[in-house]
Write a structure and sequence with these properties.
mainly alpha; 10 helices
């Protein structure tokens, strides 16, 4: 039973870390600690002053500690996948700092987001297994998130690419406005993200995943808010980014619940 409690706590921590990543972007704290990784000497003081990036890194550290504990207590394929996902999330987290600094391409942000969501999914499934609600093969389940019909991971990946290309300072842009600062690569990434999101919606309908469809509809509304707020204030688009991540997590949870019901 302790494994169920630990995995529930890990799920909450992983989800909170993802949301805090959105808050970091939304309020312009992406490089508040520079490219020093994973810590700076005064990270606890900065966290006490409510620096979201400092809190984000402390939460990520807790995710790593509990992930290792779960792996030691119950070594299994799913706990190994979870731990490996945590490691890749951490390493790619360092890479995202260099993406923001313009030293690495935005695909590293997309890969970071995939690793972060795989971490969340892994421990959510361990929790469901402990509750006797999930009996599917974890590898098959993760593969289904990559291949058709819904391309969930590609949607997540392209969302990360948009974030990485925007570098927390560029406008996504409005097609009807002439803007000399418009970034064609950013707009292309945004359009591709929109197309795969549309494919995702169609797949959800075909699969009769109605709970997922509800949260996806809400996610799209928040996504349009992100688009508008990042155009209004590209440096600090605000709470919309954090809410976008929150609803993305809820969509993932809904897919899992729909698939096992």
């Amino acid at each position: 039973m302790i494994l169920t409690y630990l995995s529930a706590l890990e799920t909450i921590l992983a989800g909170t870390t993802i949301v805090f990543g959105g808050i970091v972007e939304g309020y312009g704290y992406g490089l508040s600690l520079g490219t020093n990784w994973p810590y700076t000497h005064d990270i606890m003081q900065l966290a006490a002053k409510k620096d979201p990036e400092a809190i984000h890194r402390i939460l990520a550290t807790l995710v790593g500690i509990f992930s290792l504990a779960i792996l030691i207590i119950r070594p299994s394929l799913i706990s190994i996948i979870g731990f490996v996902s945590v490691v890749f999330t951490a390493l790619l987290g360092m890479a995202t700092l260099y993406v923001l600094a313009g030293k690495l391409p935005s695909i590293f942000q997309g890969l970071h987001d995939i690793a972060a969501y795989t971490t969340f999914v892994s421990y959510f499934l361990i929790m469901l297994q402990g509750l006797g609600m999930f009996k599917l093969d974890i590898v098959s389940f993760l593969i289904s998130a990559i291949v058709p019909p819904h391309f969930l991971y590609f949607v997540i990946f392209m969302g990360g690419v948009v974030t990485g290309t925007r570098r927390m300072k560029l406008k996504i842009g409005r097609p009807w406005e002439k803007d000399k600062e418009r970034n064609p690569w950013l707009q292309a990434a945004w359009v591709i993200h929109g197309i795969v999101s549309l494919i995702f919606i169609i797949a959800v309908v075909l699969l009769h995943y109605w709970l997922t469809l509800i949260f996806t509809a809400l996610e799209i509304i928040v996504g349009l808010w992100v688009w508008d707020s990042s155009n209004r204030n590209p440096l600090k688009p605000g709470m919309s980014i954090g809410l976008h991540q929150l609803f993305s997590i809820l969509v993932v949870v809904a897919i899992i619940l729909n698939s096992i019901s």
